[in-house]
Amino acid sequence: MTLAETSDSNRKTLLVVDDAPENLDIMTSLLKDRFQVKAAINGRIALKIASQQRPDLILLDVMMPDMDGYEVCRQLKADPATAAIPVIFLTALDSVDDETRGLTLGAVDYIAKPLNPAILMARINTHLALDEVRRELAAQNQALVEAARMREDVERIMHHDLKAPLTNIISIPSVLRNAGELNDRQQDFLQKLEDTGWRMLNMINMSLVLLKIEYGTYQPDWQEASLLQLLKQVMDEQQQAFHRKQLRFVLTQSDAAADQLIRTEPLLLQNLFANLLKNACEAAPAGSELLIELSDTPQGLQLVFENPGEVPEAIRPRFFEKFVTAGKKQGTGLGTYSAQLMAGVLLIDLALDTSVAGRTRLLLTFRK
């Protein structure tokens, strides 16, 4: 089906402009079965119809008294309301200069009279299709502009409206400690306040990092680091964070893997580990054992996080998608999504392995 062969309600509208009534009758008869056709006997009427009813395409005769087709086209392109309407010139003038003049004014095509109906219909369909693509691209471009503006607003809020007051809050415990003697309970309260402030600041910083990763603008700060050392730090932090569940972390590593240095961004890698370990700790039953295995494979270093409990079969294909979660009262569905983003930046292949019944395994392979 062509663009022209649509239902009446969806048919494109053409405006035909010609000073000869017989030409208008012929064009209307030729086009009316496929398009909604509006006719104008002169340039002034054409401009009025175009501004009030906005046709999808204009077929415009050049040689007309009072206002010729070139002037009509110039005024159409000068008006923002009609500037984007495709204009095809229909004329007996077939010199290169005439055609160049029409195209320079903004026409999309130039068809010489006498008209061949098949060629005319093909040109109309082509330019209607091109105009539809142009509109779609314009809409997509506008959406990208709005998304970029929203991202800038979010970054501004995080940088200035949140980070500045939070930094002040973090500094308060030190000021109070220096102001005088505090009892153990007060010291403990201030320490919790300070730790919470630093955690919130880290969350804001990581949110900014993830925004940049999503938009493809993040550049890692590559360094040589010990994977095992970074991992052990995160394990200690997560075990402390989930101490009430009394989880046991069991780490095994091959001799070849234990001593290797990797090229990575240490802080980003630790956030990746923290997301995956937090996810495993939340899913694991209280008092259970989490297995962590580091080995050297032909593909590169491989790290496996394994916990009791299965990922529901329904969400396995979408496990790393945004906002996908199941079985967690306060789950956001962002942990594994952000882990996948960070893994991609750090050149790590992250995969879900559900081959072991009753267990969930996450495999990280560090590309060589």
UniProtKB/TrEMBL annotation:
Q: What is its EC number?
A: 2.7.13.3
Q: Could you tell me what this protein is called?
A: histidine kinase
The UniProt record lists the keyword Phosphoprotein: yes
- Record domain Histidine kinase: where: 157-368
Sample GO molecular function, one term: phosphorelay sensor kinase activity
Top EC class, one word = transferase
Supply the Gene3D superfamilies for this chain. Answer: 1.10.287.130, 3.40.50.2300, Histidine kinase-like ATPase, C-terminal domain (3.30.565.10)
**Pfam families on file:** HATPase_c (PF02518), HisKA (PF00512), Response_reg (PF00072)
Q: Which InterPro entries match?
A: CheY-like_superfamily, HATPase_C_sf, HATPase_dom, His_kinase_dom, HisK_dim/P_dom, HisK_dim/P_sf, Sig_transdc_resp-reg_receiver
4-aspartylphosphate sites (modified residues): 61
Chain ranges of the Response regulatory domain: 13-128
Catalytic reaction(s) noted: ATP + protein L-histidine = ADP + protein N-phospho-L-histidine
Q: Which UniProt keywords apply?
A: Kinase, Phosphoprotein, Transferase
> What SUPFAM superfamilies does UniProt report for this protein, alphabetically?
ATPase domain of HSP90 chaperone/DNA topoisomerase II/histidine kinase, CheY-like, Homodimeric domain of signal transducing histidine kinase
Domain of life of the source: Bacteria
